[in-house]
Write a structure and sequence with these properties.
The structure holds 2 protein chains of 2 kinds. By secondary structure, chain A is an alpha+beta fold. Chain A has one domain: SH3 type barrels (Roll). Chain A has 2 helices and 5 strands. Chain A has a 5-stranded antiparallel beta sheet with strand order 3-2-1-4-5. By secondary structure, chain B is α/β, with parallel strands linked by helices. Chain B folds into 2 domains: 283 residues, 3-Layer(aba) Sandwich (Rossmann fold); 50 residues, no CATH class. Chain B contains 17 helices and 11 strands. Chain B has a 5-stranded parallel beta sheet with strand order 2-1-7-8-9, sandwiched between helices. Chain B has a 4-stranded parallel beta sheet with strand order 4-3-5-6, sandwiched between helices. A two-stranded antiparallel ribbon of chain B has the order 10-11. Classes of the chains: A alpha+beta, B alpha/beta. Chains A and B meet through strand 4, strand 5, helix 1 and helix 2 of A and helix 1, helix 2, helix 8, helix 9 and helix 11 of B. The complex binds iron/sulfur cluster. The site of iron/sulfur cluster has 14 residues of chain B, from helix 16.
């Protein structure tokens, strides 16, 4: 029930926005994320955006993970995930 | 488009492999972690991570993070009695429809003529109140901190629009207090918590400090993609190995130290902490939210006569949801699992809700999944 889905804001209209969820468009409430702007990503739960997703932070996180876990991977699984699907 | 880049990367199989390799190298003795959130329970099955983690010596037990499942029987019975009132339209999230009460369910009441509607958001229920001014429209307000702000917003909308016929049946629960209870439970022997990501979006990472500092249990807040979950598990394993217990926020892209202030303010405007009844745990002070005094008229219970709970049904007594919800019992170990209790004929809420542990185990293990 705490499921929340990321989507991209296409249009703002007062306390509401049209959000694109991978092709599916929905109207959602933005009262909990008053700072949101068009083209930003929001996390949507029960018809309302509960947070603006910090995409730069997401990229930093990924960068960090790649850095921290790079060495082990090369020793133990060889080049770029061989044998994975 | 570049936008898919970061989203897909949290499922990157290369990173998954790397994180699993790291986990294997640091886990030297079996770890018992609780995934508090029902959405994590589902994600652990859907991504196939559960068996991989178990190969690394990490056992994940499901916690009380399914709001439908933790609703106490007496509260369900009371809500169902409200739904049966002739002038009431009861609006609810779909997950509640088939949850069995002592004598009936919302689905059964609906079939018998009660006006029960499934809505996607609390705001949809306000719309129903607008469309039917002669009926009392009651939103069955079940949910954790993730959901409460949207319900507070619905109350605000009803207030501003002057819809006096919109009510809620408040059954909200909040996460930090039961976590403290679970962390201090002597029989559960938990080594740490994967904290619920979307609850944390609202309440913030700091909310778990007492669990880590006073109870000595490491906490990792994570998202729901494979890389998110694994990174959280690795972090917990590192903390255990290093003898530390801290709150680690591994869902940085949406979780802030103090949560979402706009959402918290809205909650605070309408609700105050109160004692709540949890299935499997019992009553816990300050683990729920009731309407503040000035909004009491929006609580449907204040509008109706005192409720007398029905006598318990012995068939339901066999259900061990209570133990499942605190990680004491794995669903397949319940004698009813897959036999007298199935998703088509559920005995307990844990077999009904999309996020219920019994439902998840049943879906992914099939019937008779043994004691594992
Ligand atoms: S399998 Fe069914 S009866 Fe057993 S604990 Fe789960 S919901 Fe209850």
């Amino acid at each position: 029930m705490c499921l929340a889905i990321p989507g991209r804001v296409l249009e703002l209209n007062g306390a509401f926005a049209t959000v694109d969820f991978g092709g599916v468009k929905r109207r959602i409430g933005t009262a909990l994320t008053p700072q949101v702007a068009v083209d930003e990503y929001v996390l949507v739960h029960a018809g309302m955006a509960i947070q603006v997703i910090d995409v730069a932070e997401a990229e930093r996180t990924l960068e960090l993970i790649r850095e921290v876990y790079a060495d082990l991977a090369d020793e133990e699984i060889g080049p770029e995930g061989a044998g994975l699907d | 488009m570049t936008e898919a880049g970061w989203q897909d990367s949290f499922g990157d199989p290369v990173l998954v492999r790397r994180l699993l390799a790291r986990l294997e190298s640091i886990v030297t003795q079996p770890l018992r972690l609780m995934e508090v959130c029902g959405t994590h329970t589902m994600a652990l099955f859907e991504t196939g991570l559960r068996p991989l983690l178990s190969e690394c010596g990490v056992e994940l037990v499901s916690g009380p993070g399914c709001p439908v499942c933790v609703t106490a029987q007496a509260d369900l019975d009371h809500a169902f009695a409200v739904a049966a009132e002739p002038d009431v339209t009861l609006a609810t999230f779909g997950d509640m429809i088939r949850v069995p009460g002592t004598k009936t369910s919302l689905g059964r009441l609906k079939a018998e003529g009660a006006d029960v509607r499934i809505v996607y958001s609390a705001l949809d229920a306000v719309k129903l109140a607008q469309l039917q001014p002669d009926r009392r429209v009651v939103f069955l307000a079940v949910g954790f901190e993730t959901t409460v702000p949207s319900i507070a917003y619905a109350l605000q909308t009803a207030e501003e629009s002057g819809f006096a016929n919109f009510f809620i049946f408040p059954l909200h629960k909040t996460i930090p207090v039961p976590l403290m209870w679970l962390a201090g439970h002597p029989e559960l022997r938990l080594d740490g918590f994967l904290c619920p990501g979307h609850v944390s979006v609202v309440i913030g990472a700091r909310a778990y400090e007492p669990v880590a500092s006073q109870r000595g249990k490491p906490c990792a807040i994570t998202g729901f993609e494979p890389v998110d979950i694994l990174r959280g598990v690795v972090e917990l394993a590192e903390q255990v190995a290093g003898g530390r217990s801290e709150v680690a926020n591994m869902y940085e892209r949406v979780v802030k130290p103090d949560g979402n202030p706009a959402a918290l303010q809205l909650i605070d405007r309408y609700f105050e902490p109160a004692t709540a009844r949890w299935r499997g745990i019992g009553e816990l002070p300050d683990s729920g939210l009731e309407l503040r005094r000035q909004w009491h008229q929006r609580d449907i219970r204040a509008q109706l006569p005192e409720f007398t709970p029905p006598v318990a049904d012995p068939a339901l007594a066999a259900c061990r949801c209570g133990e499942v919800l605190i990680g004491k019992l794995q669903p397949p170990a319940c004698a009813c699992f897959g036999t007298s209790c199935t998703p088509a004929h559920p005995l307990g809420a844990c077999m009904v809700s999309q996020e219920g542990s019994c439902r998840a185990y049943h879906k992914y293990h099939g019937m008779g999944g043994g004691d594992g």
